Amino acid sequence: MAGRKKVKLAYIINDACRKASYNKRKKGFVKKMKEISILCDVPVCGILYSQYESQPIVWPNPLVVQRLITQFRNMPEEERNKKMVNHEMFLKQRIEKEQEKLNKLKKENREKQIRMLMNQCLAGRPLTELNLDALNDMDCMIKGSLTEIATQIKSRKEKELAEMNQPQVAPPQVLMFDQSNIYTKQTVPWFLGDVPNQQFGFADDQIPPL
Fold first, then answer.
1. What is the rounded CA–CA span in Å between residue 151 and residue 157?
2. Where residue 84 falls among pLDDT bands split at 50, 70, 90?
3. Closest Cα to residue 56, out of 68, 65, 47?
4. Could you give the CA distance from residue 162 to residue 156 in angstroms, rounded to a whole number?
5. What is the residue extent of each domain of the chain?
6. Per-residue DSSP letters for 134-190?
7. Residues contacting 115, CB < 8 A, separation 6+
8. Could you tell me where the beta strands, DSSP code E, fall in 20-150?
């Protein structure tokens, strides 16, 4: 599914197209105010003047609009102007953003141009054919690349050194026993230790008389 085409922010010359765009965006504008008011519990009001309406469109109603405007005017000037954006400030912000984009594109194009000149010089083009601005830009680009390479080398060396200094953890050892070499030493009782190897008890002829 194709995405929505970005609308060019410019005055619509055709009257019918301009009116159709107004009606469409008017509904969207009122819908957004209602959503912000309900979802975020933010006091919102709007007044919309148009050449297509005999009376200004007021949302949500004149009483709420009057109350919010009075409340806004009673605020301290510093607080009131903190996040306020009028038409002039809005256009200024848009111009600054577009200028940033333009400067970024100019920088990217210049870098591509300098890279092409560097490749041409490596292929044999004399440096004497380049002007001073091109030589200065080439010098800055080369120095920047060398700095980046040096940073990468330093980072990798530090990483390798840290890995080398880490203590080596020995793997767990498993002790194996040979059951054939395990024996139990039986201790002779103390009362049999010094007794000679002889028969215990009395013979029939040794039974004492009663």
1. 10
2. confident
3. 47
4. 10
5. 15-84, 102-157
6. HHHHHHHHHHHHHHHHHHHHHHHHHHHHHHHHSPPPPPPP-----GGG---PPPPPG
7. 141
8. 46-48, 57-59
Is the CATH number of domain 15-84 3.40.1810?
yes
Written as six digits, the tokens of 60 are: 């949500």
Q: What are the tokens at 66? A: 């009057």
Q: What is the pLDDT of residue 163?
A: 86
Which structure tokens are listed for 98? 């577009």
Number of C-beta neighbours around residue 117 at 10 A: 19
- pTM for the model stands at 0.47
pLDDT score of 2 more than 60: no
d(CA 2, CA 114): 38
Give the residue carrying structure tokens 């990217």: 108
Identify the DSSP state of 14: S
Q: In sequence order, what are the beta bridge partners of 46?
A: 59
Distance CA 84, CA 90 (A): 10
Rounded to whole angstroms, how far apart are CA atoms 24 and 17? 11
